[in-house]
Model the fold of this input.
Amino acid sequence: MKIWVAVKRVPDTAARIRPEATGQGVDASDVKFVLNPYDEFAVEEALKLREQSGEGEVNVISVGPAESLPVLRQALAMGADRAVLLEAESPTGLELDNSQVSHALASYLRAQSPDLVLLGRIAVDLQSGAMAAQLARRLDIPRVCDVTSLELSGGKFRAQRLVRGEVEIVEAAPPLVLSAQKGLNEPRYPALKGILAAKKKPIETVPAELGEIRLELVKVTPPTERQPGKIVGEGAEAVPELLRLLQEEAKVL
Done:
């Protein structure tokens, strides 16, 4: 079974993101970049499937600048067999839109004939959640998004996902695109042995075949600063004033 996991280099969720002075991008000078947390679930699930079946290979792939190599090394340290970087001229990788990235991934993966393509349900930078659908469409194979449980039995995948508080169960035969939701598994930490082994595993670097730009970045601005809170009183006597402020100032009632 050929499993491919698409991963992305993203800013650490604890990092303070500041716009560039021009307002046309993000100042990444002192931002720490990491493997997208949702993609960690995808890598872990791929490794579990390989371990359960006792065969197959797990490959990881990313689209972005050369600085994306460390996140591929992390996936290799977790246990992936090999990695591919589709290198794109982009200062941080944040400048690439989903259409470009899905085109690059599909252009490469189409020739690999994958049985399963895994990725996180969202990337924590853009949070669009559109990559799985776009990639599946370009590869012309089915997809199941936001998977919370996955089994392989009798040559078919059995996936579970939450839909409006209910559990939806989907069965599908390979090839298939799946996006991993939080709770699918608990990603393993790379052990020292895996970290050392990752240094010897191959990373192929090829130019990315980026698709057409569909989105234009107009401006990057910081969020509006939160206004200071007000103390309107104590106990039941404060309720009328609180209601007035919610209606007249906050305008939420």
